Amino acid sequence: MKKTLLTLTLILGYVYSYSQCTPDPIYQDSTYNIWPDTIINLPAVSQGISYQSVLNIKTPETLIEAAAGDSSFTQLDTTIFGTSYSFQLAGWPVDSMSLVSIDGLPNGLSLSCAYSNCILPGNILTCASVDGITTDPVGVYPVTIWVDVFTHGTLDLGLIQYPLSTSLYEATGSYESVNGYKIIVTSANSLEIINSNEFVLLQNIPNPTKEKTTIKFNTPTSDIITLLITDMLGKVVYSETILSVVGMNELNLDLNLKSGIYNYSIQNDEKILSKRIVVSE
User: Which of 22, 41, 51, 170 has the fewest CB atoms within 10 Å around its CB?
Assistant: First the structure.
């Protein structure tokens, strides 16, 4: 939190609607994160078909957790009453985390949260959802989530104890960006995907899943494809050999797996593609 002059301006986020989502308790004891992460990523959306994807969010408890352990982001350099000070705010609590905006969503899709204006209390498990119907062109749409973090504490000025309430934006002039998310828009009629002449694996739907899930992949030629699902130790828990058709292929699976995180992969003669699947209770 680098800053040369302290200001106390309240920054308000965009107004969002309420989400009816329910967070998955499998993440209750986790530290600050968002699921699905950018490795699993958001499910694909088909043109003209109603879409919903739930984001499970565990908000940070302290500023150092929000900064992923990087103390340079929790350093506050400021001027108070004409005197320069430097403070380390790593242990200050996160009062709330605001999802200020989400950029790059296809038209017709929007973000809604379980809390008003997407201002989420610190150190809780909550959720948000991306909902709507899009008719945007087939393609890959990179998505960026902009986050602000609010905190409070007391600055020790020697003879004076200076109470302070501030935020990431107030202290640095910028929000934190969460990059790496994307949404693939496909054609509802032909199930066409971007670059249909490529070997492509899509994210399973739904994810997280309890038992039944659908895995889609695209192949430019008819081929023998091997599907493997492994646990985090690399043990194969499911395997299947498929003769693919040209274009989009769809596998409807009824899994009987313990709750946890697994990797699933497809392989042809040239390439292996992998993604993660979360199985919940």
Answer: 22
- Is the domain spanning 195-279 CATH 2.60.40.1220? The answer is yes
Domain 25-185 and domain 195-279 have a common topology: yes
pLDDT category, 73, cuts 50, 70, 90?
A: confident
Instruction: Please classify residue 171 by burial: count the beta carbons closer than 10 Å to its beta carbon, then call 0-12 exposed, 13-18 middle and 19+ buried.
Output: buried
Strands (E), the chain: 33-35, 45-46, 51-58, 75-80, 83-88, 94-103, 109-113, 119-121, 125-132, 139-156, 161-167, 176-186, 200-201, 212-219, 224-230, 236-243, 247-254, 260-267, 272-279
CATH architecture under which domain 25-185 falls: Sandwich (2.60)
DSSP per residue, 57-90? EE--SBHHHHTTT-GGGGEEEEEETTEEEEEE-T
Q: Which range has the worst mean pLDDT, 76-80, 160-164, 192-196?
A: 192-196
Q: What are phi and psi of 72, to 5 degrees?
A: -65, -25
In angstroms, the CA 10 to CA 48 distance is 39
Strands 45-46 and 176-186, by their bridges, are parallel
Q: Are 135 and 108 in contact (CB under 8 A)?
A: yes
pLDDT per position as a tens digit, 46-67: 888 889 899 999 999 999 998 8
Per-residue pLDDT at 18: 58
